[in-house]
Amino acid sequence: IVFNAGDVDSDLNVSFWWDSQGFEADFGPHGSQFNNPVVVRLSYKDADLNGVVEDSLRIWYYNENDELWEMSGQLVNKNEKYVEGSTTHFSRFALGAD
Hints:
Blueprint (H helix, E strand, L loop, with lengths): L14 E5 L4 E5 L4 E11 L13 E7 L4 E6 L1 E3 L4 E8 L2 E6 L1
Antiparallel strand pairs: 1-2, 2-8, 3-7, 4-5, 4-8, 6-7
């Protein structure tokens, strides 16, 4: 997560949980809202893509209201092995292909 000045109104103690098997991340405090979009970067450095084309990787977040996964980012850095997106809130995120 990359924050810039003005993205949050007060101090924020960030928590992070990462499932390296399912490539899911949960950022907290859950539901925190930001004044501006912040950058989310998830690594696939140690992933076995099992035939998945790197260019098809995306960051998805789980929309709890609609109970579905929505795309949050699609910038793929194949040299450093990460996918980057943005968000205006903390939620559950995952790497997946489109």
